[in-house]
Amino acid sequence: MKKDNIKDLFNKLQDKMDFEEPNEGHQHRFLEKLNATNGITPLVAKKNYSWLRITSIAAAITLLLTVGVFQFNNSKTIDEKLAEISPEASNTQFYFANLIEEQIRALNSEKSPETERIINDTMFQLKKLQLDYAKIEQDLLNGGNSKLILSAMILNFQTRIELLNEVMIQIENIKSIKNTNNANYTI
After folding, report:
1. What string of DSSP letters covers 58-78?
2. Which end of the chain is more exposed for a tag (fewer CB within 10 A), N or C?
3. Where are the domains positioned within the chain?
């Protein structure tokens, strides 16, 4: 008779039974708790999996840094992009930039109390022209009308050179007026 009662009990509880398996390591944790309550120390030391977590984090950081450095090193400068689009423009830029730099050095060598104001104004105007050139250069890199933009770039360089030449002429005039005035005052 007992068998029938047990069968009936299982038939009644069949839909309510839990068939899920416990999490991984459940038996090991259960035995550790059981041994701890009985005062038994385990012979095998508890495994520490933190090195795996640390290693995986380090690998992820290394991967991100490698990708970042690779992307950073692949970015080209504006001059390199300009050389790709138009090698002639790059050569022209190099020529004019050297010429302008040479004239700026000559201009700065003429600095005196009489010419300081005109030189400072000229340097301010040159900075404005350089900013305009940077905008023109960006337009070329963005795919604008290359002939028109290259023409504007050359015109910008020519304007800077003409400005420097005009200022050098004015400085020479200032120096000659100063020398004439000094000659008039000598006894």
Report:
1. HHHHHHHHHHHHHHHHHPPPH
2. C
3. 46-75, 78-182
